[in-house]
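Incident log, structure service

09:12 report received: a user says their structure output differs between two submissions of the same chain.
09:20 pulled the input from the user's history:
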Amino acid sequence: MKSHTPQQELRPWWQQPLRIIQPNMQVKDTAKINSEKLADQIMEMGANAMVFNTGGIYAWYSSQVKFHVHNEYLPQDRDLLREMIDSCHRRGIRFIARFDFSKAEDSVYLQRPQWFARKEGGQPEIIGATRPGAWPIIMSTCINGGYRNEGLAVPVIREALERYEIDGVFFNAPGYVFCRCSTCQEKYKGLYGTELPETSAELEPDFASRCFNDNLGRMYEEIKRVRPEVPMILYYNLHRDHLEKRVSITDMLCTEPQDVLSLGHTRIPEFWQPALSIKVGRSVPGRPDPFGIIHSCPGMDWRHTGLPPAEYRFWLSQIPANGGQLWHSLTGIPDTITDKRILRTVREVNTDAAKLAPYMDGAQPISHVALMWNADRSAEGLAEALIHKQIPFDVILPEQLASVDLHRYQVILLPEGCSYPPDFVSSLHEYVSHGGNVLAEGQLPMEEKQTRSLLTDLFGITGEIQESEYLFASYLRFEASAFVGKDTPKGTNPLQRELEETELIPHRGKVMYCEPIDTDVQVLATLVPPFSPLESVGAPPERASLAVKQTDLPLALLRTLGGGRACYLPFSLSTLIQEFKLEEHFRLFANAVDLLLDGKALVSVTAIPGLQLTVFRKDDELLIHLVNGAGRRPLSSVLPLHDIEITVGSGEGSPVGEAEAIITGNLMKTEWVDGELKINVPRLDVWECIRIPLLI
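09:34 re-ran on a clean worker, output below:
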């Protein structure tokens, strides 16, 4: 196994591989904490850092800051927080202080009501008023008020950092909560010149983020003023955060892809959520690998039991397999956790992650495909198809459009709803002309005249585009003789691969009616219009035949422009993928990507439902991760996959023919076929990483 180099050890601790365990403690369980025993247990479960309650709602030390409510169950004759920190440090475990200033007891509200959030009508927001047991009332604080700023949070941060050898700082629940207090009203009017609206839905889109940045930026400033070496960790969200702004006010990023099974089977989180969340977090260059916070429970309302172990391992494994760092959120300490499956699973996954740490430390993803991220369901749909079809990809954030080097990728994917300026469309045009490939779907951003002109030229369509009504009972028809390609037999359609026995696949939704500009644009698929209104699809005579079997209305167009190609699907394939999960739609998408890659993916794998593939490179090695999520979710047991074949080309250097499974320690059977390396993985339980040396 690889060991850390001296250069790696010179880096700050927080820039080295980490595995965090966070025991979420109730104050009433304070007496059950034995710092030496807990530190031993954390180490035995494979963690090298711990997140532990320090301040905010309750002070876990003897705070001198006025209105900082003490945990009343703290021992009176000793300093539990100092003991915990010292016990961790003696074992080489880093101590990350958890602060939560989002709420406070009503005893504080009675004395400083101006610090608290005010809902519509001016009433404070009360949390858990009907909670059973002798608990004080907890109330939400205002992000712009004194409690979260100079009145309490800033002096608490200063006090804790000055008094204790804290290694890092994490803020729980730091987000904006809608508030109509006078402080928020003044801030809103100062920013926008108008009165603060009555409801959150009417707020200016950037108000919440500006409040967040102001508040957490002040926290970051205070941390660096007192202890510059101490890193701060902040959340990011898959859907709404400007990450390049976020990283300017923090050192490390974390995200929380909860597997909330308590939502019910029809609404559980999608299988791709951990993978995609980490890909988005990694999209900002030059930052430590983001943390994926995984709760052990199947929902906060069931937080005292654990996820089914098979589901839990699948969810956890996606974090390191996509280049993230594990952060385990547990309800309590090992001595109070009654579901011992949790402790076993955490230990097993951490053990596997530790084996990979020296290999993955500094490794970079190798992807020929990039997805433009618009934080919308359309991008999620294409991401789902990419993961489902084992196509490695990177994510490009909107704020990166001006700086990203498109030529790093062979294919750029543009989901419906993307909005981009004319200079980016010009870059796309240049990218395709010099050998790049673009795949776009649905309605294009045509509002601006220059953008419209560039896009219609890029995709080879006229400027006359009209949106249809919502279509039911319609189909996509493959045009068998449409494609002309040097390596494709005449009369075949690359979009129809593995669908050769059908001319039609289901379509539903709106279509952008368009026309190709000339015969050089290939129409690979067309619309078969609705054969019946929805209410009569099963009644004679419509059910027996199609009113119109073929049209010239395009549903897939391919244009060659210079050295590259642009493919346009004038309908929302991402919506079909998300709504219906039909293999035909996944296959159509995978075929379109493969067409633009010329069938020359760097790494491909046996197409098995539930199998995930990611590829990284470090120095002269490829690292190929396989994650098994086969079976109906939530997974009740591991369904092993057998005889998986990995194919490796020579796009990143020549593989030498050796392959090692790092987690199991087994050597893999390999052979050369037509200049490609074939690797056989005889069995995959949940997660494996295959290491392949390269000759450069």
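09:41 both user submissions now match this output. Likely a transient worker issue. Closing.
09:42 reviewer note: The chain has 16 helices and 32 strands. Residues 143 and 635 are 39 Å apart (CA to CA).
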